[in-house]
Amino acid sequence: MNDLQHIGIIMDGNRRWAQQHKLRAVVEGHREGTKRFIDLCSWCIEKNIPYVTVYAFSTENWNRSQEEVRGIFDLMEEFFKTEIDTCIEKGVKLRILGSRAKLKDDTTAIIEQAEKRTAACVKLNAQIAINYGGKDEIIRAVKKLYEGGKNNPRFPETLTEGEFEQCLDTVGIPEMDLVIRTGAGGRKRLSGFFPWQSVYAELVFQETLWPDFSKQDLVRAIEFYRTVQRNRGK
Known about the structure:
This protein is α/β, with parallel strands linked by helices. It has a single domain, classed as Decaprenyl diphosphate synthase-like (Undecaprenyl pyrophosphate synthetase), CATH 3.40.1180.10. The protein has helices at residues 14-20, 27-46, 66-82, 84-90, 105-117, 134-149, 161-165, 215-227, and strands at residues 6-10, 51-58, 92-97, 124-132, 178-181, 202-205. The protein has a 6-stranded parallel beta sheet with strand order 3-4-2-1-5-6, with helices on both faces. Strand 3, helix 5 and strand 4 (124-132) form a beta-alpha-beta unit. Helix 1 packs across helix 2 (27-46). The longest helix is centred in the first third of the chain and has 20 residues, at 27-46. The chain is globular and about 60 Å long.
């Protein structure tokens, strides 16, 4: 049986869910989607999955309407204010990945407080990618490496994969074993979701929209993973 440590989830389909349910604002789909995140944490704990990483807001999502973007961030701030006690009760340690450069100071402060308050939780490590893009992460890592290597005459010839990983957002977190994309709509792509960390991940594309994602959907993906012989290029 394969050892499943880390699941990544591209939470797609919130807007389509709102449209299907004829809701007056697409942000209501995102609101329903935040509820599934709490459920997801509970299911991962039940299945003894120690790490889960979700894609909440990409660097490309800034191109959406100002109304939707503001609504998404209002929801995230509300979540980090109101659901932290629930995370602590469940034993969920939160870590926010991505660049914080474009976030408002108030948003950054709320995020940092959530991370601080859940730091001692040990049942599940839950990473939330906000203002994250795979290309952006790699560029930021290269800049860190460049700054750190200025005084090393052998840089970059001596650079190792391990040193590069120390400059990624996910430092200290194992690579992903399984990536699930919900609301795929026939699309089979990762859309910039942690390209370095998912290089050997098994991929599952589900048509279920994220607000409708269920424990059974997660179980089916895990069962698929268990059937795959993973040789990582060997």
